[in-house]
Design a protein that fits this description.
By secondary structure, the protein is mainly α. It has helices spanning 2-34, 37-73, 80-112, 116-150. It is built from 4 helices and no strands. Bound molecules: protoporphyrin IX containing FE. Protoporphyrin IX containing FE binds at residues 2, 6, 9, 13, 17, 62-63, 66-67, 69-70, 82, 85-86, 89-90, 92, 137, 140-141, 144-145.
Length: 152
């Protein structure tokens, strides 16, 4: 059971953090370099729409499998770095909720109305929050895997 939960947990983490890495470092810079706003913003909005559905699912799986395995061990007995991972994971999920429920609808509305300044502003805030979550994701990975050595 524990291994199955860990499998689900890590599958979710790979999709979320790997997807953010690809979007931030590969897709967006090339789209910004090669396409004008009227082409770039509809493309990014459509790509992010698909990615965010996968992330919403991944976040649900990560939180459910993470808390289920914490419960198996017992919250009081769990090592400190597991609690740190949970805190960081909840923070990342909160940031994703802001992106998905507040900023992404603005990007979609801007694209639908061909209002490029509004769509561009929403996209810029999404980019900053995705970069923040990418940093936090890297930190959470370090805490999860190296935490036992860092905090004896
Ligand atoms: C609220 C959110 C989270 C909770 C409650 C949670 C809980 C846990 C627990 C209990 C384990 C140990 C499972 C076991 O060994 O059986 C674990 C493993 C792990 N988690 Fe999380 N986690 C959360 C979010 C995250 C996030 C966001 C990441 C990465 C970005 C992450 C990365 C990992 C990794 C890499 C492991 C494997 C560590 C190892 O086996 O050495 N977790 N998580």
């Amino acid at each position: 059971m524990r291994s199955f939960l860990l499998f689900l947990h890590l599958a979710g983490v790979i999709i979320w953090v790997g997807g953010m890495f690809f979007a931030h470092f590969c897709l967006r810079p090339v789209a910004a370099e090669q396409l004008p706003p009227a082409q770039r913003l509809p493309l990014l909005s459509a790509v992010l729409g698909r990615f965010f559905v996968a992330v919403a699912l991944a976040v649900a799986v990560i939180l459910a499998s993470g808390f289920a395995s914490l419960k198996l061990t017992g919250f009081a007995l769990a090592p400190l770095h597991w609690h740190a991972m949970s805190g960081l994971g909840l923070l990342m999920a909160g940031i994703f909720a802001v992106i998905y429920f507040r900023l992404y609808p603005r990007l979609r509305a801007g694209v639908a109305e061909a209002d490029w300044p509004a769509a561009g502003a929403a996209m810029n805030r999404i980019r900053l929050l995705v970069a923040t979550n990418l940093l936090l994701g890297g930190l959470t990975l370090a805490v999860a895997t190296l935490g036992a050595y860092l905090v004896p």
